[in-house]
Design brief:
With 281 residues, the chain is α/β, with parallel strands linked by helices. The chain is globular and about 55 Å long.
Length: 281
């Protein structure tokens, strides 16, 4: 049975699916077609129901509940760290941030929803330009934006690129919620596949994550070509930030984080409907 599997071309997703891509575990009756695209594109494709299984932003999941269920594995959570607001200019006062033009990696990303919560403004009241996540530094250098909302490995390299941190939204959220991680991404599966296939495929994905964590060095080396300038040590550090025990299973803490994140977004009118979480059993 052919299954389309979408994930981002970055080290943490590559590590997560290493065992599946490299034939390290049994895939049963399934043949997985790995589709590597940036998260905004995956969010949009999931909105059109084009992918059987895909990584999506938790923000995007709020718009996908009719067709997709969350897997209980595959979460990317920022546990007192996360998307960062960076700029060429150091130490911009928080009161000045709403007046800046932001380069953001997509309107459906969780990073952008977190920015709206942090600024206390809906998207329509923020001056922003959408830029592929790996081109945000370029947008800042070229003067197309005053500040950049960075995700992925830019969180480890922004200083050597010549930029300054103004706010870590994961750290802000951790303080704001008294200790919850910031839910950024998750894996979803198309409900039309039926409950038996959904459960079986979820078990395979969870086994792949566990295999990577148990064979960490091999998994990191598999993911390293997608590290965009990271050496092996920093790739390992970045992967550890976003593939860990919360990735193996959300647990109650991870589920509470999603409920709080999307609940606040709905209360502030940033997403249209309240979200009932539906996980594969």
């Amino acid at each position: 049975m052919n299954i389309s599997l979408g994930h981002s071309p970055d080290p943490d997703d590559a590590f997560m699916f290493y065992a599946m891509a490299a034939g390290k575990i049994s895939l049963g009756p399934y043949h997985f077609e790995h589709i590597l695209q940036d998260i905004q594109t995956l969010n949009e494709r999931a909105g059109r129901g084009e992918l059987d299984v895909t990584a999506v932003s938790i923000h995007a999941y709020a718009h996908l509940t009719r067709d997709y269920a969350l897997m209980p594995c595959g979460a990317s959570m920022g546990d007192n760290y996360g998307p960062m607001i960076v700029s060429r200019r150091p130490l911009i006062p928080r009161c000045e941030l709403p007046g800046l033009r932001f380069a953001v990696p997509g309107t459906l990303t969780s990073a952008f929803l977190a920015l709206q919560l942090f600024l206390g403004r809906p998207a329509g009241d923020i001056d922003f330009v959408v830029v592929p996540f790996d081109r945000i530094f370029d947008a800042l250098r070229e003067g197309r934006a005053d500040a950049g909302l960075i995700i992925h490995e830019g969180q480890l390299t922004y200083q050597e690129e010549g930029f300054h941190l103004n706010e870590d939204l994961g750290a802000w959220w951790f303080q704001e919620t008294k200790g919850l991680p910031l839910p950024l991404g998750g894996n979803v599966i198309r409900k039309a596949l039926g409950p038996d296939h959904c459960r079986a495929i979820t078990r395979i994905v969870q086994e792949s994550i566990r295999y990577g964590l148990e064979h960490r060095r091999d998994g990191v080396r598999h993911a390293l070509p997608l590290g965009r300038g990271l050496d092996e040590a920093r790739a390992d550090r970045f992967i550890g930030m976003y593939v860990n025990e919360l990735t193996v299973d959300y647990g109650e803490r991870g589920r509470a984080a999603i409920r709080e994140f999307l609940g606040r977004a709905h209360q502030r009118g940033l997403i249209p409907e309240p979200v009932e979480l539906e996980f594969v059993a």
